[in-house]
Design goal:
Pfam families: DUF2129 (PF09902). Keywords: Cytoplasm. InterPro entries: DUF2129 (IPR016979). The structure is a single chain. The chain has one helix and four strands, in the order βββαβ. The chain is mainly beta and 87 residues long. The chain has a single domain, classed as 2-Layer Sandwich (Alpha-Beta Plaits). Strands 2-3-1-4 form a four-stranded antiparallel beta sheet, covered by helices on one side.
């Protein structure tokens, strides 16, 4: 069974040092140009993990990702207009 995961966007000042974040969770993406890291950590230990990450000298800011809270089931009440534009 998969553990519940929480995503975080971590703004860093040193991208090379940001590779060390892999020991706190799974690093999904590292942006060298904008200097941020997208990573996922276990939700049950997320608070203490973020507290430990915040202590690192190269971390500027930590934002929580709200991707898992966005509704992904869509309902279309508008009638389909594609049949009107056909040949």
């Amino acid at each position: 069974m998969l553990a519940e995961r929480t995503g975080y966007i971590i703004w860093v000042s040193d991208v090379k040092a940001a590779r060390n974040l892999e020991k706190y969770g799974s690093v999904h993406y590292i942006s060298r140009r904008m200097q941020y890291v997208v990573m996922y950590v276990n939700a049950d230990r997320a608070d203490e993990t973020v507290k430990n990450i915040r202590r690192l000298s190269y971390v500027r800011k930590i934002e929580r990702s709200y991707r898992n809270e966005i509704k992904t089931e869509y309902s279309s009440n508008v009638p389909d207009k594609t049949k009107f534009f056909g040949p």
